[in-house]
């Protein structure tokens, strides 16, 4: 038995945000041969579950970059940030009027002035990402709609006064160089948090123990699988902790160059069924 950890965006999901039939069939075949497949994503657990439901997939998942680990609805581990760090980070972001999202055990929360913060950020020194279309840029920066998953606040302190929610992650949209650089420097001074990136236009902040590597280890322990029998497939910097932990690390063809360098192997891109190719090559018994 092996454990296969899959990232979502840029990995299992195509650029059209779909899981292809080829990838689904490879996952199902791996499962039929007794292997465990899990999702390890920066997305909120509820967001991941919605995607899995769409494809009738019932598998373990790790959301918020591994800060929340679940197996079929049961929470196996949750790593939340401490209040002191939350205040430090939120105050810094509000001082800069940076657009950010807070991932909690009660959904995702955003400042009510998200759109104004995005507009302000875009007036500054805008980061240009090679190959990023105007349509994609608009999708990244547009105002999210209120839903069962998305809520808004006027000040982050409302989360403690009204609901006392536990916070697992800050997702910061970094659209200009100065704020991104200053924020990274600021976060380096907070020894109890870890930060990473799943895209050139963001910084994601969690407790230092909330990462994909520890999430992979938790599911491996849950199923009694040795770490040398684990495989991680991903494309970006937030996948590095699980690459370092896994017995075999596989970078997508569309992965960041540095990510490819540290991995044991490179598969095809997310638009070329790279997950299916890796599973067929390294997992399935013919």
Molecular structure report:
The protein has 286 residues and is of the alpha/beta class. Helices cover 37% and strands 22% of the residues. The protein is built from 11 helices and 14 strands. It has helices at residues 21-32, 45-54, 83-96, 114-123, 134-141, 158-163, 177-188, 212-223, 240-245, 257-262, 274-282; strands at 3-6, 36-40, 61-63, 68-71, 74-78, 100-104, 107-111, 150-153, 167-173, 193-196, 202-207, 230-234, 248-251, 265-266. An 8-stranded mixed β-sheet has the order 5-4-3-2-1-12-13-14, with helices on both faces. Strands 8-7-6-9-11-10 form a 6-stranded mixed β-sheet, covered by helices on one side. α1 (21-32) packs parallel to α11. The two termini are 15 Å apart. The mean pLDDT is 92.
Largest sheet: 8 strands, mixed
Strand arrangement in the largest pleated sheet: 5-4-3-2-1-12-13-14
Number of separate strands:
14
Order of helices and strands: EHEHEEEHEEHHEHEHEEHEHEHEH
Q: Please bin the fraction of helical residues.
A: 25-40%
**Count of alpha/pi helices:** 11
Q: Which consecutive residue ranges, at least 5 long each, have pLDDT under 50?
A: none
What is the first-to-last residue Cα distance?
15 Å
Overall geometric form: globular
β content, as a range?
Answer: 15-25%
- The mean pLDDT is 92
Which structural category fits the helices and strands? alpha/beta
